[in-house]
Amino acid sequence: MMLPFFEVKVLLEGGSCVVSPDIKEIQTSINRAANAVLKSTKNVTKWVKGTTQTFYDWVAKDKEIVKVILLLTGSIEGTKNKVETFLAGFKEFEWLWKLDIVKTQQEVSAKAMSNESYEKELKKLMDTENKINKIPKSVQIGATHVLCVD
Asked: CB-side exposure of 113: number of CA atoms within 13 Å?
């Protein structure tokens, strides 16, 4: 397994889980970096049989280099889909951060709950906590390290 090249954090933002920086930002940065490297080769020349030729011409003709650049710029798309699938796993717990705690406390206090009902609700919350605790603190998806922060 390759070492991660990027790190993103899973954050709760605006009522949903997102990664920061956004995958699109990473893609834009990769594209800009690849572009900068390619453009820089236009200023470097080499002598070929009495004439000068830029490294850009040589790089543009080398199929392996072009292939690596295309793989680099396109690699994030597959990662993006896998990260979105990972984030979708948090939807199950969405009710936790959308819950109005004060209102819920008032409703529970107003009810005359039996011990059995109270234990049933408590068990549901404990089951939810166990599911949350089983979520890995970090995962590697492609060349991206996804870190879940508290």
From this structure: 15
